[in-house]
Amino acid sequence: AKASGKASWARFEPRMHSEVVNHARLGSELHNAIIRHELELAYQPVFDLVTGLMAGAEALVRWRHPVRGLVSPADFIPVAERSGLIVPLGSWVLREACEQLAKWHAEYGAAAIRSINVNVAARQLRESGFVDEVAAVLSDTGLIPANLVLEVTESSVLDGRQVRDTLQALHELGVRLALDDFGTGQSSLSLLRAFPVDVLKLDKSFVDGICDGEDRGRLAVAAAVAQLAEYLDLYAVAEGIETAAQAERLREMGYRLGQGYFMAKPLPPAEMAELMIRTVLP
Ligand code: C2E
Ligand code: CA
Ligand code: CA
Ligand code: CA
C-alpha cells in the first residue's frame, strides 16, 4: 500500500511561527491540544553514515494550532515543562511513536527501520510510574526494549536520586538511553560514569564548526566525543548535519550514525514510508 506522501504533507506547512508567543495563553491552549488531536509527530531519520541505510528515526512533536498554524516545539515544550503538561504530552508522544514503529515493522520489516528515538523531559523521569508506563507501551505495541531509544539531557539526568533509579530501571528493562545535546553541559564526563548511557548525541553546535577552518575548538570536541564513545563502547550520533562535507568529516572521526537536513528533514509518516519502500524494496 503506497501512501501519497507529498499530499499528506500538505497538512504540514513549512513556515514555523517565530512570533513572540503569549506563554500563558499558549499553556491553556496546549491543555486542549491533545484532546483535540492537534499534535502530530514528525520523524527525522537517523542514518548509518557508513552504509547509508536508515537505522532509526527521532520522533519530534508538532502542534498544528487552528489559528496560529504550526507552532515550533521550541516555543511550546518549555511552556509544557513549566506547567507540567509535558507529562500527558510526553505520554502521548511515547505511545504514538511506538505504535508507529510497530506499524512500520509490520509493513516493511524491522530491517527497514530498527529503532525509534523519543525525547523525554525531566518531569517525566520524575513521575514514579514512568518505568511501568514504558514497559506497558512496549508490551502493548509488541516492540522489544532495544527498539526504543529515550533521549534525555544532561540537566534532566542530574535531577537527583529518583531520576537515577528510574534510568537504571529503564536500562535494566533493555531500553537504550541517549544523552542529547552532548557536549553542551557542565559535567558530561563524570555523568557517564554515574549513569547507564548507551548513546552520545553530539550537539549540532559542534557539528556546525567542524568544517570551519577557524574553529579548532568545536572540531576538537566533536573528535573527542567520538573517541570517548569508542573507548566506552557507546554509540556516537552526530545531529544537525547540513552538508556533505560535515557528514564525511564526522564519518572519518568515527561517527557511525548521523542525523540532519543534509540527509533528511523531519518527515510526516507517509514520507517516511516512501523512504522505506525505496530503501528496502528493489
Ligand atoms: P532536539 O531534541 O535537539 O531535536 C533536534 C532539533 O534540531 C529538531 O528541532 C530538528 O528538527 C532540528 N534539526 C535536525 N537536523 C537539523 C539540521 O540539519 N539543521 C537544523 N538547523 N536543525 C536540525 P525541532 O523539531 O524544532 O525540536 C526542537 C526541540 O524541541 C528538540 O530539540 C527537543 O528538545 C524538543 N522536542 C521536540 N519534540 C519533543 C518531544 O516529543 N518531547 C520533548 N520533551 N521535547 C521535544
Ligand atoms: Ca532529541
Ligand atoms: Ca539534540
Ligand atoms: Ca539540540
Describe this structure in words.
The structure is a single chain. The chain is of the alpha/beta class. Helices cover 48% and strands 19% of the residues. It is built from 13 helices and 9 strands. The protein has an 8-stranded mixed β-barrel, surrounded by 5 helices. The radius of gyration is 19 Å and the shape is globular. The chain starts with a helix and ends with a helix. The chain binds ligand C2E and calcium ion (3 copies). The site of ligand C2E has 21 residues, from strand 2, helix 3, helix 4 and strand 6.
Summarize the structure.
With 282 residues, this protein is of the alpha/beta class.
List the helices and strands and how they pair.
Blueprint: H1 5-8, H2 23-33, E1 39-48, E2 54-65, E3 69-71, H3 73-83, H4 86-108, E4 115-119, H5 122-126, H6 130-141, E5 148-153, H7 154-157, H8 161-173, E6 176-182, H9 188-194, E7 199-202, H10 204-209, H11 216-232, E8 235-238, H12 244-253, E9 257-258, H13 269-280
Parallel strand pairs: 2-4, 4-5, 5-6, 6-7, 7-8, 8-9
Antiparallel strand pairs: 1-2, 1-9, 2-3
Helix pairs in contact: 2-3, 4-6, 6-8
